[in-house]
Structure formats: C-alpha cells, structure tokens
Amino acid sequence: MENNNLPTSPNKARNITLVAIVAAIYAAITFVIQPIAFGPVQLRVSEGLNHLAAWNKRYIISLGIGVLIANLVSPLGWIDWIFGTLGTVIMTGVTYLLTSRVTQPIIKILISTFVVATLGMAILAAEFTFAFNIGAHGASPSGVKGGLLAQWGAYYVSLVPGEVVSLIIGGIVIYALSKIINLER
C-alpha cells in the first residue's frame, strides 16, 4: 500500500515557498499602491517583479497568482481576473523562453523589459479595449474617436510609460538581487 503522507522533498517545498512569497509580495505591493495601480494610466511598481521570470519558470506561476490576487480588487472585475492573469502568464512565459539560455543578468532584464513593455502592454491594451466596448463596469474610455485599433493604440500609449518606470525600478532591484542570490535555484 502506498503512503501518500510522506513529506515533500526540500526542493519541492522550497519552490512552493518561493512561489507563494513572490505572489504575496506582488499582491501586497499592488494593494499598497492601489489608487495608481489600475486603469489605463497606471504605475504598478509590482510589475518590476516580472523580471524574475527570466531566471526561473516557477516565477511565471508566482506572478500569475500574484496578479490574480491583486486584480481581485480591480475596477474591471472578472475581466481583469481572467485577461490580466492570462496576459501575465503569456508575457512571463515568453520572457522565460527567450532568456533561458542567456547568462548575463543585464541582458535578461533588457529582454524582459522589451517583452513586458511590448507584448504585455499590447495584451493589457486589448483587455481595456474589450472592456470598454462591452460596457464593462469600471471601464474607462480611451479618449480617442475611431475604431478598435485607434482605441487599442490610445490605451497602449497610455500604459507603456508607467510600465517602463516600473520595469526600470524592478530591473535595478532584480539586478542587485541577482548579484547576491542565485535566482535560478
């Protein structure tokens, strides 16, 4: 008979702990800055943690969970729960794939910044465009007259500056951490 009550291996327990810690840090930072963390113009400093996905795939899960928890208080409700979380998993997954063979921390951070600022914000701009066009509660107009592409472009342009600031702050912190902690382990 198989004993299913065996303790988990130290490595598995460590991974679960790190996933939980990073998810909690992401959510906590977002809750603290909640007034500026949501909407088409935002400064979500917790987004700087997205760089972690360049070091280990466990952070894809961490960040997805952290975003889901943080988005539970989003004005967009279920739309942000689903699409915000999926967008994070997609962009951090792409970051991991593109950086898996890169060894230099600064290059990892530059690739991550590019992926998050382009693909990540493109997905978020699409989410805002969708939410506004279905008349979702909490959706803000883009301020642009025109079709879906014009709306998407306006949202994208309004999202990128705050995201880049968050990624620069996070990049500095993650770079410093990478010099004292093995983030791949």
Q: What's this, in brief?
A:
By secondary structure, the protein is an all-alpha fold.
Secondary structure category: mainly alpha
The count of DSSP E runs of length 2 or more, i.e. the number of strands, is 0
Order of helices and strands: HHHHHH
Low-confidence stretches are none
Note the beta-strand portion: under 5%
Number of helices: 6
Q: How would you state the average pLDDT, rounded? A: 94
Rg, nearest Å: 17 Å
Overall 3D geometry?
A: globular
Main sheet record: none
Report the span from N to C terminus.
34 Å
Helix content: 55-70%
Overview features:
mainly alpha; 6 helices; 0% strand; 185 residues; single chain; 67% helix
Task: Please outline the helices and strands.
Elements: H1 10-32, H2 34-37, H3 58-70, H4 78-99, H5 105-133, H6 148-180
Helix pairs in contact: 1-3, 3-4, 4-5, 5-6
Q: How is this structure best described in words?
A:
The two termini are 34 Å apart. The protein is globular. Helix 1 (10-32) packs parallel to helix 3 (58-70), helix 3 (58-70) runs antiparallel to helix 4 and helix 5 runs antiparallel to helix 6 (148-180). The protein has 185 residues and is mostly helical. The protein has six helices and no strands. 43% of the residues are buried. The model has no long low-confidence stretch (mean pLDDT 94). The chain has helices spanning 10-32, 34-37, 58-70, 78-99, 105-133, 148-180.
